[in-house]
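ok here's the first one, seq then struct tokens
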Amino acid sequence: MLRLDKRRKKAAISVADQPMGDHHTPWFPLCYPRGSIMTNSRASAIPQSARQSAAANLHFDFIVIGSGFAGSLIACILQSQGRTVAIVDRSSHPRFAIGESSTPAAGLILSSLADQYDLPWLKPFARYGTWKQAYPKITTGRKRGFSYFQHEPGKPFQPRADHSNELLAAASSSDELSDTQWLRSDVDAYFFKKTCETGVAPFENSEITTLHQNQTGWLVEVNEATPRQGVRRRTLSSGFLIDASGAGQVLARHLGIEDESAKLATNSRAIFAHVTGLPEWHSILEQAVPGSTSDHPFHCDHAAQHHILEEGWMWWLRFDSDVTSVGLVLNNRPTGSIQSVAESGEGLTASEEFFDVVNRYPSLRDAFADASVINPESMPVRTPGLQRLSSEFNGANWAMLPHTAGFIDPLHSTGIAHSLIGVERLANTLLKRRQHANDNLPILELWDSGSVVEDELTLIDQLVAGCYDAIAEHSFTKLAAFTMCYFAAATTWERRCLNNRSSSVPESARGRALHRPALLCADVADFRAAVFHLRGQMPEETEDSFERLCKKILTPFNHVGLFEPPIPNMYGGTAVPTHRTFNP
């Protein structure tokens, strides 16, 4: 639980050696030399007026640490609403960032933020069709839904007539309306560019050396590397600090906030890269069994694609270019014959461990035979544990965005949506601070939002850990059944939001966030209890009885025909209709 009464404050701390910027998180971007990967990004050109404002004004209402898409977006919103904002990052754009997969939740929030804060440039990113039309040079890919394929060691993948080793679930009804794959190097660079155009003061290539907290806010000392003047020491001041540094967790280190990652049920790590020349899985299936994809509800490569393995799972996220984001996510918990995945990689390079796992699965081995890793000097990247969880998320004059406060695992593609809903909540709260004579209201809202983030992270942890439990049992049937918990949560949440959304945002509502339920129904006690119960019961049930139990318990949250597809494991009608009202 959050322990807001035990915050430890320090007068000053050196953070020169600490990672900063959300490009240092294992699942969010990692920084590499410019030009090291294939990308459509051009070198960012920060407007001269923004650079002048950085030199002329060193006091700001808000300082944001980290210039990934979430940090840039909240800075842009605050600046557009009349606040003064600086954004500080130890690196610059464009830079390497692993691919990520969006969801309908992310699209809903993006569209809403664009309307609330009059940011017309933002709205096209909510859907594949509008993105391609508005930003053809910003790399993306179609994501019609989620696809899963179970592999057996030593055996080529063979699609079965009953699809018992496959699962496809649609999240959109067409390519035009589909979700998107984000090449974060492109997206982050563009968001940062648009943010600077609003007048946000950018401090790129700036190492924070000292954070000092006082009664009026913060003093932030940075060493800013400039092309002409070399390194300049700058002192920035602000009444409020926003930590968007991801795994860098700058404020957690400064305030001595306890790390509670050990409390999480999920324990995984990743090895990932961008590759070219990877064949479509759809083609591999057709070569194995001609016609086997004829009853797929969508192209299985236009998805967040999951290859389920004994060791964990592998993602494939395909962009419209020849680039595919791939990654192994390995379960660190002992599982049967795989006593310790963490130990199995000892003594191996990241590339050696990656292919040591891949080569156990003939279909994956053959798929990667002609694939090439982009920039093999620095990829693949191997992370330690992916999980993190701070015991406190915010205070009277500081706040962490969700991806800084905690992270679980990329299994359900929750990262983008969780970051965006955090931006929406925090912006709404901070913009109230000057609207109330009594400033306690925003402070209490900050603490309340921290509790909501904790509930969301706890629920995501259970939704992911239960899937790893099923993988450990080598039961694709149980995995498919428990995965329905996520789809029930996602589709119920989408309906709750759509039911509360007006057809247009009136002028009076600009700059004021609409009420948003907690992500994935984390605010619904009955749903949280259902997920905990199903995960606890999984080991005690047979595959058939567990599937029946999931269907029964999830009935109140099943509005899209889960467990009853016309074709086994093929869900083509699970996309939420945007015109239908819904009573949760």
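and now the second one, same deal
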Amino acid sequence: MIWLSWILWVGQPVVFEGGFLSQPDGAKPVVLIVDDFKLAYVGESIPKEWANKIQQHLSLDGGYVLPGLIDAHAHLSSLGNALESVDLVGTSSYQEVVARAKNRAAQLPKGTWITGRGWDQNDWETTEFPHHDALSQAVPDHPVVLKRIDGHASLANALAMKLSGVTSDTKSPDGGVILSNESGPTGVFVDDAMGLILEPPMSVSDLERQISKASDHVAALGLTAIHDAGIDENEWIALKNLAEAGKLPIRVYAMIAATDHKWLQRQLKQGPLIDLYDGFLTLRSIKVYSDGALGSRGAWLKQPYSDAPDTVGLQLTPDNEMDVIVEQAARAGFQVNTHAIGDRGNQWVLQHVAQAQKIGVLDASARFRMEHAQVVDPADFDAFVKLGVLPSMQPTHCTSDMPWAPKRLGARTTGAYAWRTFIEKGLPIPMGSDFPVEQPNPFLGLYAAVTTQDLDGQPAEGFRPTQKLSRTEALLGFTEWAAYSAFQEDRKGKLEKGFWADFTVTDRDYFAVPSHEIPRLNVLMTVVGGRVIFRR
């Protein structure tokens, strides 16, 4: 990681040269002149009027320049926590999950909490939710809580449940489920029930450390900005502390978690905070949940799950609370970005937005967003357009879910992961990864959007072949459209004069490599505001 002094750059023009501009009709040599953190010139050679003004020359190392990549739906502190926790991504059995937790326990004093994330029962031979017995027997002296990969379910061992006061008499809360059998809780807690396991709270200094670690990690992957999808007040304080100290390398468009009620109300009174710390922090949106996740059958469907006819999923926010949030946000100038995965969850949000527009407190200029918009009834697509609701989508959800999503959805799969359908109706799609649910590498998302295939190139025709995007469309999702969804389209997402000098440099041309090579592009340099925040 290479950092350049902020003070050094103020008022001192710098030129980046020795690389190529990556574009659909063929790469060409490029020179980028940065002045006062913005692009002052983009062309093929240094113009005469700048020749004597340049203070520094930096090499692009023969790389290919893209507009700074943006992840429009991510979770910085959760990624930082995952980087410090037991990594369960890719585990192929419950036994492997238990073994990793046991190995971590052997390294820690008895009584220390063990956390982890990344298990997915759909990847196991049984595909059934686990029971805590094996985990409790293997790790009896450490409280353990292991989150499912989507963050919408967790597995706790016996000690963690005991310390949290969870017994056979504990009732499932509204918006959540405690999975139980004749012996009592199985240790699996879904959505709002996860809060029953009382993990130690994170301090602001803990959050600063984790956010810093996660920011450096994604900067090395080429990300110049992320939209942090649901933070509490302590996370905001940590972000501000890092930005004020000049230790936040990427730009963050933050969404207030609606569950942090006291902070939300204070912030609604104060109003949006835009482009703080030279544009590194913005707080002008609110994150709400309509439902849970498809993998844990918490996504809210209009009809029962095809593989679980006794459930339609979960509604996580009461109707009256949603009405209040939408009206208060609209009046205070805040955008509302609602997690909605199931077709009923998406329809429910559209109905609340329509009602707010009907009574005159909201119009389409508010750019309200549907985070995920994963399963949509074909009858509801036009409502997105009419109401101006932006579908914020994550391409790798499609390729991760494809082995089991048809079992959950049946014929409804035809309305799922429908990026092209939205685009053809004229809606821009901000794209992201939802890390750490998925890997934060943006080139995995670009590849998934272009091919709808896994990394082995399967299925040959693509899982959703009618929804494939062109490389240009996919890149727009991670640049211009992401910027538009954050009201930043006049300063971010393009390589144009007057825009922030944010760009990503790769070792090969994104537009020219075979599609199966897109995930293997290496980042040579990540630049934010003209400052090199990563150099390989």
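notes on #2: The first strand starts at residue 14 and ends at 21. Residues 1-10 have pLDDT under 50 and may be disordered.
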